[in-house]
Design brief:
single chain, alpha+beta, 4-stranded antiparallel beta sheet, 3-stranded antiparallel beta sheet, 5 helices, about 30% helix, about 20% strand, globular
C-alpha cells in the first residue's frame, strides 16, 4: 500500500508541476519596458547591452572625455580600426583581460584570433595581458594568430567577421 500512495503523490506532484510550467507567460507581465532600461551601456556599434557581457565589454573614452561602451573587442574594433567606423578620436580604450578578468589598456593587450572561444557576437579578438598568456591561450584554445592592437587592420577585422 505505501508504494501506491507514493506513486499517487508523485503523479500529483508531476501534474501540478506541468500545470504550473505550462501556464501562460503573457508578455505584459514579463517584458521590461524600453523606457526603464539604461541604454547608456548599449554597444556603440551593435546596440546590444554591453553591461550584460562583463567578461567581454570594452570601455572607450573619447577625446572629449565621453564614455562609449561595446559588448566585445570585435565591435569596438569595427568602430575604431575599420574604415566604416565612426570613433577615430579617443583617449583611452579599456577591455577585459581573458584570464584575470580585469581591465587593461587596448594598446597593452595581446589579441588572439581564430580560437574556439567565442564572444557575444561570435568570433572575436580575445585580449590577454602579455605574450606568455597569448601563447598559452592560443595553444589551449586552438587560436590561429597573436596580434597587437597597433597591428590590427581592416583585413584582420574582416577575417574575424567570417
Amino acid at each position: 500500500m505505501p508504494i501506491k500512495n507514493f506513486k499517487k503523490t508523485l503523479n500529483g506532484l508531476f501534474i501540478s508541476f506541468l500545470a504550473f510550467a505550462c501556464q501562460s507567460n503573457s508578455p505584459e507581465k514579463k517584458a521590461i519596458p524600453n523606457s526603464t532600461r539604461d541604454t547608456k551601456y548599449d554597444c556603440a556599434h551593435c546596440a546590444m547591452p554591453a553591461n550584460e557581457y562583463p567578461k567581454w565589454n570594452v570601455k572607450l573614452t573619447t577625446a572629449d572625455q565621453k564614455l562609449k561602451w561595446f559588448c566585445s573587442p570585435r565591435c569596438m574594433l569595427m568602430e575604431v580600426k575599420h574604415p566604416q567606423g565612426k570613433l577615430k578620436n579617443f583617449s583611452l580604450i579599456q577591455l577585459v583581460e581573458y584570464y584575470e578578468t580585469r581591465r587593461i589598456k587596448a594598446e597593452d593587450a595581446f589579441f588572439v584570433i581564430g580560437s574556439k572561444v567565442l564572444g557575444p557576437m561570435g568570433n572575436d579578438f580575445v585580449p590577454v595581458k602579455d605574450s606568455a598568456s597569448a601563447v598559452e591561450f592560443k595553444n589551449d584554445h586552438e587560436g590561429k594568430q597573436i596580434i597587437r592592437f597597433k597591428d590590427i587592420d581592416t583585413r584582420l577585422i574582416e577575417a574575424v567577421l567570417k
